[in-house]
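Marked as duplicate of an earlier ticket. Keeping the data here for the record.
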Amino acid sequence: MPDQIKPVWGVVVSIQPQAEAATRESAIRAGLPLVTQLRREGWTQKDIEQMQEDKLAEQATAQATLAKALLSAEREFNRGEAEAERRALAEAENLAEREV
């Protein structure tokens, strides 16, 4: 009976997050596409597609945030420009009144 029992061992691997991140970063800096590196790390196609969808959503949010910030800055600039024009006109009127 003992000769019928065959132990089957799985691959023993200890994945350290910091080491994995450093390896990924090095591979990408060396020119390997991110998706290729993720496949090598064992990511499934479904995982990769989800990551890409999340990345697109994140970019859209960042773009919308940037657009809002630019519009706000433009409005503020225009407000300041208009205020500067009003002050200049008021000063010109004051000078004109003093000369009369």
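See parent ticket for discussion. The CA atoms of residues 68 and 74 lie 10 Å apart.
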